[in-house]
Amino acid sequence: MSFVTEIASEAQFKAEILETPGTLQVIEVFQSWCGPCKAVQSTFKRLYFDLNDRPLKFYSVSAERLPMLREYVGKCIPIFLFWKDGKQVEVVVGVQAPALNRLVMELSLIKAAEGA
């Protein structure tokens, strides 16, 4: 079972990100020539399994794949977008494991508390 879903099209982005309320979605935007960041995978995997009671999903997408990500094309550093209820709520530039961990914990806890 993979804990990261790759977004392959605008239609998939719309269906899984924009039209899925109640879930914190963390999207890694990467360049097609280098692929998703391997260094952050262990952090995301731990969070995925530790927080399995919270509405949380991880995605990855090539910046070249979606027109809305055009501003990130050519960046040599991964970008992590945090979406909730169809809106982008945070951005982390680069592999900053402490910041990524803190945001996932905070934003998923807020959503879990709102749903309770």
Protein architecture, described:
It is built from 3 helices and 5 strands, in the order βαβαβββα. The chain is of the alpha/beta class and 116 residues long. The protein has a 5-stranded mixed β-sheet with strand order 1-3-2-4-5, covered by helices on one side. Strand 2, helix 2 (41-50) and strand 3 form a beta-alpha-beta unit. Residues 1-115 form the Thioredoxin domain. This is Thioredoxin domain-containing protein. InterPro entries: Thioredoxin-like_sf (IPR036249), Thioredoxin_CS (IPR017937), Thioredoxin_domain (IPR013766), TXND_domain-containing (IPR051766).
In short:
Pfam families: Thioredoxin. With 116 residues, the protein is α/β, with parallel strands linked by helices. It has helices at 10-18, 41-50, 97-115, and strands spanning 4-6, 24-30, 56-62, 79-84, 87-93.
Query: Low-confidence segments, ≥5 residues, pLDDT <50?
Result: none
Number of strands: 5
Q: Could you state the order of secondary-structure elements as H and E?
A: EHEHEEEH
The spatial strand order of the largest sheet comes to: 1-3-2-4-5
Percent strand:
25-35%
- Approximately how much helix is present in the residues? 25-40%
The tally of helices reads 3
Distance from N terminus to C terminus (CA atoms, Å) equals: 28 Å
Rg over alpha carbons: 13 Å
| Helix-and-strand structural type | alpha/beta
Largest sheet: 5 strands, mixed
Q: Mean pLDDT, as a whole number?
A: 87
Shape: globular
